[in-house]
Specification:
two-stranded antiparallel ribbon; mainly alpha; Myb/SANT-like_dom
Length: 184
């Protein structure tokens, strides 16, 4: 898992929390470090913009959302130098992908045995459950020992983006419903 995961002692996992800034042509790549505090500020900014109606994480970003986030981050972290593209856009994608993986393990249909510990901000499961899951999803191995302190805030942003089976219909249900409608 990437980015917002933190080692148990609270330090950032080496090499796991940086974003690379792509330079043009033969320029050197600079490392963009995303600290827990900057991640928190970014998520708070996304929530503020969502409440104000200028940010919609469920259906992709609205036009201008990244620029709004750039301005918010600059006001919270003056001189941070974060640009809408590539920094904020890349971090948004990383946070969303990480959140999806954690959410699917904690609440997904095919991940029996996993739970979420809100006090430790970590996934929980027995060793055999982890071992079995990681055999199929190797990229999720770091989530076994990493905290994800922004999980609950990201639920507020991305919850509509995950199917939960509620109100799902089978093809037979649809046919039956159409038949009833045509009779009336």
């Amino acid at each position: 898992m990437l980015g917002a995961f933190v080692q148990k002692n609270g330090s950032l996992a080496k090499g796991m929390s940086s974003q690379q800034q792509q330079g043009g042509g033969t320029s050197k790549q600079a490392i963009r470090i995303w600290t827990q505090e900057k991640d928190k500020a970014l998520v708070e900014s996304m929530l503020e913009l969502r409440l104000g109606g200028t940010f919609n994480a469920d259906n992709g970003l609205k036009t201008g959302s990244l620029e709004d986030l750039e301005r918010k981050m600059e006001s919270k972290w003056p001189g941070c130098g974060l640009k809408a593209i590539p920094h904020i856009q890349s971090r948004y994608k990383t946070l969303k992908a990480t959140w999806k993986d954690v959410h699917d393990m904690a609440y997904g249909n095919n991940t029996s045995g996993f739970g979420w510990d809100p006090d430790r901000c970590m996934l929980t499961a027995e060793k055999d459950v982890w071992d079995s899951y990681i055999r199929s999803y190797k990229k999720c191995a770091p989530s076994r020992t990493k905290q994800f302190p922004l999980f609950d805030q990201l639920i507020e942003l991305f919850h509509k983006d995950r199917a939960n089976g509620k109100d799902a219909q089978s093809p037979a249900d649809v046919v039956e419903e159409l038949s009833k409608e045509s009779e009336t």
